[in-house]
Amino acid sequence: GDLVIPQNVFNQQASEEYISAIAKTTVLAIPIKHIQKIMENSPEMMELVISLILESHTEGRYREKLLRIPAAKDRYNFLAKHENFILKRVPHYLIASYLNVTKETFSRLHKGLAY
Description:
The chain is about 60% helix and about 0% strand. The protein has helices at about 30-40, 45-70, 70-80, 85-90, 90-100, 105-110.
């Protein structure tokens, strides 16, 4: 149920993003020309696009905040507090990468061991 808007989509530049799906996913691509035409004819669509851009920006700031936490244990605890569902649904090696720690460090953190 998520919408993903790649970086630079509205200024038509190549993005450096990679998206990995961890569950069965359907990808739909809508040409930017169609989106622009709909936005011209529908003020509601313009509001939706602005909301999506703001949401994307907010998520980016959240990710930046997470990575600025210096201690791996504190990053893990922050994730457990704010996005516990990730710990239940996502393979641990991907979470380790997301937290910028090794798989071994993540395993220790997840088990409550010293690292």
